[in-house]
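Suppose you are handed a protein chain with no further information: no name, no annotation, nothing but its sequence. What can you learn? This example shows the usual starting point.
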Amino acid sequence: MSKRKKKARAWKTWKARAWKPVRMAVFFLGIGLVTGAGLALFFVDRPATPKIAAVTAKLADTTDTASKKTKPRPQWVREAVLEPAIKGRPMIAIILDDLGMSRARTTDAIKLSAPLTLAFLPYANGLWEQTAAARAAGHELLIHVPMEPQGKNGDPGPHALMVHMTQDEILENLSWDFDRFEHYVGINNHMGSKFTKDPDRLAMVFRELKARGLLFIDSRTTADTVAKKLAQEIGVPFAERQVFLDNFRSAENVRERLEKLESIARRDGAAIGIGHPHKVTLAALREWLPTLLEKGFVLVPASTVVRRQLKDAAGR
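A reasonable first move is to predict its three-dimensional structure. Written in structure tokens, the prediction is:
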């Protein structure tokens, strides 16, 4: 065999050996691509396994729970004074109305044992300072909204809610009230024996309270009030006064009314009394409040009574 032929055969042999690994790699790469595509199609069309589905459901549930947790609480809950330890004891809430007009009497009321619920007239001066002091002392706040009384003798004061008003006028006066100070849980009525009998006008107020997340305490200045019925229909957190403490301004009368309040609280589990910053009332409360614990009662803010009533209603 000639030298040239030997060289040609050697080159051919080397070339075949050199390309063999490349051809093998291409072959296996092709198999891998085909197999991978098939597996991909298999898993795309295949429904999620129970384990994956369970994890997905759990994540969705967690997201929903987180969404519920981040839902803002209504103002009456955010601004409520911390609920004391009840431990099954009868609850008594004391509301003092007409605050803010006399700085001296308001200061005396703020110095009483907390938590009381202090209702400030919106047309008083210096409300930001006075209400801030009340909150700092541990008391809960209400706006004591003036409403039209029955008859012509009573004057509820400026920006009062009157039955002849249109909805726009009522909402304008309410908006003025709401801007007078902050950190309140809701409102109660100053006078209002005529206004709280008017379902159409009172419903305008209650719809605004619901939109703002506020509660209503009915002072019950008339037996014909429709507040409770409307509050239930519209969905406004609600409670009502059981005892007026000082319709007659004598120490003996105030003590008798406090005893009546205790009796109702024992019977019903909770009771709300309303008084005013008269000297005789403040003196009686100063003497009476320290005795509650040893008698088996617990002093609570009005919002705690509202919360209890909502729970009772939900359980029925």
